[in-house]
Amino acid sequence: MPKFLPYGKQWVDDEDIAAVIKVLKGDFLTTGPTVDAFEQSLSQYTGAKFVTAVNSGTSALHVMYFAAGLSAGDEIITAPMTFAATANAALYLGAKVKFVDVQADTGNINPSLIEAAITDKTKLIVPIDFTGHPADYDEINAIAEKHGITVVADAAHSLGASYKGRQVGTLAAATELSFHPVKPVTTAEGGAIVSNDSAIDKRSKVFRTHGITRNPEEMQVNEGAWWYEMQHLGFNYRITDVQCALGLNQMHKLAAFIARRQAIAQFYTDAFADVPELILPVQRDYVASGWHLYVIRVAENPERRKALFDRLRELGLGVQVHYIPVHYHPYYQNLGFKRGQFPLAEDYYARAISLPIFPRMTDDDVASVIERVKQAVKEVL
Ligand SMILES: Cc1ncc(COP(=O)(O)O)c(C=O)c1O
């Protein structure tokens, strides 16, 4: 049986482990200097001034939406080709989700469909950098500006990617990152809100810790050195110094991780160029994707996708499908969404299979994936 290869996997080395142990032996397990250092390294890498690190990408979305001013009765516009968290975090705040369909080739939100979805309640547009490929920010930001709406990015897949020479983290008013193990760098669980907006950052840091402020200048009264004030209904979304020790050390390797992902994607794209049964992922010429995912699609008969998926699993590939469109989930169907509403996202989903892509894959691993995919295509399609 050939080696099992998952669709994504972390790369934690002895240096990462030593960094974690050092923090475990130190004075601060949480809310300490390693959280600050991790935030600084994210700021340096992305070029964004402010970073608030939190305990998951999902909490980062919740914090970011709050910090950008989303509240009950407001609406966000996003795409259904994403993990449910992108939409769920708006519901946490009592807001409503409006989906618009995607571009057929990238799976990213289609800017030309956004304006029709804008109402006087629209507060945020939330593009997702699906698979690590940044969305079309210039078009999206222009629409938002015209209507006085804020763009905040779900960049859970795309730390380390760039768009027209600009780093992810500086493309929207605020950007959410995830550090789940399959993501560009990991803290086991973790996330961050990155921005150049000091007001968004202030609100993020308050929301991360129960809505509490300890800044005397922001307090309504001050009864002494012990005094703090809870001014918003926040949460405990703090990330630990232990996690940030891992994240900080991983950041030293981010550029190399991304370069390796890009090389693997190129191997696949070259190898499958002569397989007409497959639609391959695209990369716009003004984008350097982070290649979080490499999604192939079945060209002719989407109804054969399941057979191809099952055969690839039998052959030892931990393939996945990204994503079940969010509006397919029963919870969203109960909110009134229906199958058929977003045909391009639905078509993308019906054909999609995510192949293994992660930095630790060897050239032999990549060759073996190519061989197994070609074999399965021949057998099944
Ligand atoms: C597009 C997208 N947004 C948000 C999230 C949520 O991140 P986390 O798992 O860190 O909560 C994920 C995680 O898979 C994701 O893929």
General description of the model:
The protein has 12 helices and 17 strands. Helix content is 36%, strand content 15%. Strand 3, helix 4 and strand 4 (96-99) form a beta-alpha-beta unit. Helix 8 (254-271) packs parallel to helix 12 (363-380) and helix 9 packs across helix 12. It is of the alpha/beta class and 381 residues long. The radius of gyration is 21 Å and the shape is globular. The chain starts with a strand and ends with a helix. It has helices at 14-24, 33-46, 57-67, 85-92, 137-147, 198-208, 241-251, 254-271, 305-314, 330-334, 343-351, 363-380, and strands at residues 5-6, 50-54, 75-78, 96-99, 122-126, 150-154, 162-163, 166-167, 174-178, 191-195, 212-213, 229-230, 278-279, 287-288, 294-298, 317-318, 352-355. The strands form 5 sheets. The protein has a 7-stranded mixed sheet with strand order 2-10-9-6-5-3-4, with helices on both faces. A 3-stranded antiparallel sheet has the order 8-7-14, with no helix packed on it. It has 2 domains: 5-251, Type I PLP-dependent aspartate aminotransferase-like (Major domain) (Aspartate Aminotransferase, domain 2); 254-380, Aspartate Aminotransferase, domain 1 (Alpha-Beta Complex), CATH 3.90.1150.10. Residues 56-58, 82-83, 85-86, 128, 154, 156-157, 178, 180, 191 line the site of pyridoxal-5'-phosphate.
